[in-house]
């Protein structure tokens, strides 16, 4: 079955008011081409689920797509805080659920296992139970000791970026898979962008690095530099220069509108041209 799609076809499958799980971690292997397309769409009132978010969540907040964020952390690592996220969090402009990295994984895993919650000892003795009211402390029915029930997270759609894929929807992730496999399995529909589509025979040579199996993916889009400005190891590094420009632009209304016009409101080919072309990115960011 040929699962190749366009970016616009993927965005069309995301329902208004839907819940979107986003793969990658912080400034690493985020599905940014898909995120930019979602940011410039007319989709609204979305809930984002991220283990560790970065420019993906911040961009969707800056363009008004989100009504809620379920997260463990959102930031720009060594570059500092996420500006739109910080402002929205401080003003409570939308809803926020503060989880931990493990509880996000446990919530996704509960959906995969088709159970309403995942029992765990995580968060016991911490302020997480006071900060996030979605968890429930209960007694273990076998030894009567305290445990925590983490509710199932049920994304309508997952968006992930992989190094390579085939047209059947198998995906290769080289290096840390982060929570992408959990996102792919838990969502009703999973869509991948990839650096390059290979033949099935070529893809199978990657063995265990074929982390996303076709039974979990609904569609795949070939988008070279589709994770930029986040990194996609070992293909290219995180573009720290671009992220610094992003942070500067987001510090003022005028700067942000200019950034949107140059890097969000345009489709991927023009996005690359506005960076000087793929050749310029290769010269700066190829490992």
Question: Quick recap of the structure?
Answer:
Strand 6 (136-139) and strand 7 (146-151) form a beta hairpin. Helices cover 33% and strands 24% of the residues.
Jot down its keywords:
three-stranded antiparallel β-sheet; Glutaconate Coenzyme A-transferase; nine-stranded mixed β-sheet; 33% helix; 12 strands; 287 residues; alpha/beta
CATH topology: Glutaconate Coenzyme A-transferase
Number of helices, where a helix is a run of at least 4 consecutive DSSP H or I residues = 12
Structural class by helix and strand composition: alpha/beta
User: Please, how many domains?
Assistant: 1
CATH architecture verdict: 3-Layer(aba) Sandwich
Tell me the layout of helices and strands:
Blueprint (H helix, E strand, L loop, with lengths): L6 H6 L6 E4 L9 H8 L6 E8 L1 H8 L3 E9 L8 H9 L3 E4 L2 H12 L4 E4 L7 H4 L4 E4 L6 E6 L5 E10 L4 E2 L7 H7 L2 E10 L1 H5 L5 E3 L6 E4 L17 H10 L3 H12 L3 H6 L4 H8 L2
Parallel strand pairs: 1-2, 1-8, 2-3, 3-4, 8-10, 10-12
Antiparallel strand pairs: 5-7, 6-7, 8-9, 9-11
Helix pairs in contact: 2-3, 3-4, 5-7
């Amino acid at each position: 079955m040929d699962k190749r799609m366009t970016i616009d076809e993927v965005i069309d499958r995301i329902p208004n008011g839907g819940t979107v799980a986003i793969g990658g971690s912080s400034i690493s292997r985020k599905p940014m081409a898909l995120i930019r397309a979602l940011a410039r769409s007319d989709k609204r009132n979305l809930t984002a689920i991220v283990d560790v978010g970065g420019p993906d969540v911040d961009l969707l907040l800056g363009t008004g797509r989100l009504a809620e964020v379920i997260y463990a952390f959102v930031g720009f690592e060594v570059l500092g805080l996420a500006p739109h996220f910080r402002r929205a969090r401080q003003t409570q402009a939308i809803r926020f659920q503060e989880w931990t990295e493990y509880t996000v994984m446990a919530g996704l895993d509960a959906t995969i296992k088709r159970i309403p919650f995942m029992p765990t000892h995580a968060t016991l003795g911490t302020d997480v139970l006071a900060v996030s009211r979605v968890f429930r402390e209960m007694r273990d029915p076998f030894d009567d000791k305290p445990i925590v029930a983490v509710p199932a997270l049920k994304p309508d759609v997952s968006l992930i970026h992989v190094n390579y894929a085939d047209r059947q929807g198998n995906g290769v992730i080289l290096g840390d898979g982060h929570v992408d496999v959990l996102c792919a399995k838990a969502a009703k529909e999973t869509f991948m962008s990839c650096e390059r589509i290979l033949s099935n025979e070529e893809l199978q040579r990657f063995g265990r690095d074929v982390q996303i199996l076709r039974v979990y993916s609904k569609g795949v889009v070939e988008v070279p530099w589709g994770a930029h400005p986040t990194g996609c190891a070992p293909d290219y590094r995180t573009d720290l220069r671009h992220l610094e420009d992003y942070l500067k632009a987001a510090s003022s209304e005028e700067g942000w509108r200019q950034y949107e016009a140059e890097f969000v409101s345009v489709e991927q080919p023009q996005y690359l041209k506005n960076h000087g072309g793929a050749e310029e990115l290769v010269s700066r960011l190829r490992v």
